[in-house]
Amino acid sequence: MTALEGKVALVTGAARGLGAEIVRRMVAAGAQVTAADKRVDDGAAAAAEAGAQFFELDVTDAEQWAAAVDAAATADGGRLDILVNNAAITRVVPILDCDPAEFRKVIDTNLVGTFLGIQAAAPTMASSGGGSIVNLSSPSAFEGTVGMPAYSTSKWGIRGLTRTAALELADLGIRVNAVVPGALRTAMTRRPGWEDEDYERHYGATVPLRRMAELGEVADLVVWLASDQASYCTGGDYAADGGLGAGSLPPLPENG
Ligand SMILES: NC(=O)c1ccc[n+]([C@@H]2O[C@H](COP(=O)([O-])OP(=O)(O)OC[C@H]3O[C@@H](n4cnc5c(N)ncnc54)[C@H](O)[C@@H]3O)[C@@H](O)[C@H]2O)c1
Q1: How far apart are alpha carbons 82 and 177 in whole angstroms?
Q2: Cα-flanking dihedrals φ and ψ of residue 131, to 5°?
């Protein structure tokens, strides 16, 4: 029996990057997955390739959330076992230059979007006998992040929301946890003109394991938290961050 056999899952931000990898790994683990994203063409293509169904969802819209939960659940007689709140955006701009509308947009997508997802999914999960919610956190939820005030604030907020939801939903049989990924090579970290070595020097060199994370290394942790193997885990932060949370290292000196 595979880890997610018989489970029904909804994954947001699934058109690309980490969300698309989570969908692939969940399907491989035996789940029936609905991949949701506001990016329709990429989302539909990624879902089809993975063997998932696609649903168009803007996570800032409560009505669309209700429809997404229905679509995911009707795929298997009205049950929903897993929700992964992965969709997020960032803006790289310091506080003094940050347009308040842009700040609000990041909070609305990352934090309010996660809140709306929990609110929409929990009743169906409860009537399915319980479930697992996994929220994507970040190292930016544990310290300030220069140039990303809205993103860091949103991820700190997700920590509080994760713990509160874990407390409130425990009696419904719903576990709620956060995954803290190290830096990944996705659209979110892409910088114009950077080569491979620029990414590793900027994101990898100060990590204890001296490299960025692979998508699968983070996605597998999400799959495990979603599975019954994590049945006694709720309200926690689970890191796949190469040891970054233990403290950062100075970059290795160049040789030669
Ligand atoms: N990339 C990293 O280094 C890194 C590090 C730590 C945490 N994370 C977190 O991992 C998660 C995935 O990040 P990624 O690197 O794959 O990002 P990405 O930008 O590659 O993918 C994010 C996806 O979210 C979707 N999305 C954005 N706004 C949406 C909305 N309103 N409604 C629905 N979908 C929306 C986008 O269309 C996109 O498909 C995020 O929560 C991010 O904060 C990423």
Answers
A1: 12
A2: 175, -170
Nearest to 178 by CA among 135, 222, 142, 227: 135
pLDDT tens digits along 139-170: 999 999 999 999 999 999 999 999 999 999 99
Probe residue for ligand 1, chosen from 21, 37, 133, 185 as the CB with the greatest number of ligand atoms within 8 Å: 37
| Amino acid identity for residue 181 in this structure | P
- What pLDDT score does 59 carry? 99
- Listed in sequence order, the DSSP H helices in the chain are 17-28, 40-50, 62-74, 100-107, 113-127, 149-169, 196-199, 215-226
The per-residue pLDDT for 253 is 74
Residue nearest to atom 5 of ligand 1 (CA): 183
| CA dist., res. 216 & res. 160, Å (int) | 26
pTM attached to this predicted model? 0.97
Distance (angstroms) between ligand 1 centre and the Cα of 163 equals 21
Question: Would you state the pLDDT for residue 25?
Answer: 98
Number of Cβ atoms within 10 Å of the Cβ of 195: 8
Low pLDDT (below 70) residues in the chain? 75-76, 256
Delineate the domains of the chain, giving CATH numbers in brackets: 8-241 (3.40.50.720)
Q: State the Cα–Cα distance between residues 14 and 220, nearest whole angstrom.
A: 15
Report d(CA 154, CA 186) in Å as an integer: 19
Would you state the pLDDT for residue 248? 77
Is residue 199 flagged as an active site residue? no
